[in-house]
Specification:
single chain, Rieske Iron-sulfur Protein, 2 domains, four-stranded antiparallel beta sheet, about 25% strand, elongated, binds FE2/S2 (inorganic) cluster
């Protein structure tokens, strides 16, 4: 047998006092780590709170008042303004969309239509001379009540919005975005 080879010796499986101390430390660290998990999860949930709020359901937003919507049956366009929360940042009130409001002679009932084209999301324009709406992107045309003028690239009529007239004549609209390019009116989350 060559001189540099040593005979095999079985390892000693009984942990030494030093080894036992290391194992105890490791277990303590694991337990400590587990104990900090619940506060971390709770903190993370609060940290993500703005993201949760961003998907809140549609709400009524003040737009204008009845006196600003002439009762001649012609739709008028108004900006929808709201404070925006983008992830963790709050912004000052700014336009987030537009609506057409109209009312008939002597009526306080106000009809609201989203100005977003249901075809692909361009802004629909009013054509007062022709008494209809027209979308400049692909030429969809709509009647004053939002009904579709066939044939049309748009798969559906303009999207109606819920509208409230308050005691003092203020008009609030339930602002919602809808999926474009489909026949059904489906609100976006
Ligand atoms: S986006 Fe309006 S017709 Fe296409």
């Amino acid at each position: 047998m060559p001189g540099h080879l040593r005979p095999y010796a079985a390892p000693d499986h009984e942990p030494t006092p030093g080894r036992r101390g290391a194992v105890a430390k490791l277990l303590a660290m694991l337990c400590g780590g587990l104990a900090t998990l619940p506060p971390l999860v709770a903190g993370g949930w609060n940290f993500l709170d703005p993201l949760r709020r961003r998907s809140a359901a549609a709400t009524f937003l003040p737009v204008t008042d009845v006196a600003s919507v002439p009762d001649d049956g012609l739709p008028r366009q108004f900006a929808v303004v709201a404070e925006r929360v983008d992830a963790w940042t709050g912004f000052a009130a700014e336009p987030i969309g537009a609506v057409y409001l109209r009312r008939e002679k002597g009526s306080d009932t106000v009809e609201a239509l989203s100005a977003t084209c249901p075809h692909a999301g361009c802004f629909v324009e009013m054509e007062p001379q022709e008494r209809c709406f027209r979308c400049p992107c692909h030429n969809s045309r709509f009647m004053l009540d939002g009904g579709i003028v066939a044939p049309s690239p748009s798969p559906r009529a303009m999207d109606g919005l819920e509208c409230r007239v308050g005691k003092n004549g203020e008009i609030a609209v339930k602002w919602q975005n809808f999926y474009t390019g489909i026949a059904e009116k489906v609100a976006r989350p």
